[in-house]
Design goal:
Blueprint: H1 3-8, E1 11-12, E2 19-20, H2 25-39, H3 41-47, H4 54-78
Length: about 80
């Protein structure tokens, strides 16, 4: 088996749902990126980039919840 053939039959690591490459690297890369995006790994890494105090996180969550509650209450008023 040639070196290029082995490379094309490689498995892309890093995700439990590994992608089997069958000659089309562009498709495999696209599929791998979609799986990483759907798993939320990158979002978690961005959150862990800097430390946030627990009080700051709770305040942000409170603001988000308040915004959503106002948004849905406005929808109910319109209906």
């Amino acid at each position: 088996m040639s070196k290029s053939k082995k490379h094309q039959l490689a498995i892309v690591p890093g995700n439990p749902n590994a992608v089997l490459v069958n000659g089309n690297l562009d498709f495999a890369l696209k599929l791998f990126k979609r799986q990483v995006k759907d798993s939320g790994i990158m979002d978690l890494m961005k959150e862990r980039k800097e430390f946030k105090k627990k009080s700051v996180v709770e305040r942000e969550n409170y603001r988000k919840a308040r915004f959503l509650q106002q948004k849905f209450s406005e929808r109910e008023r319109k209906n």
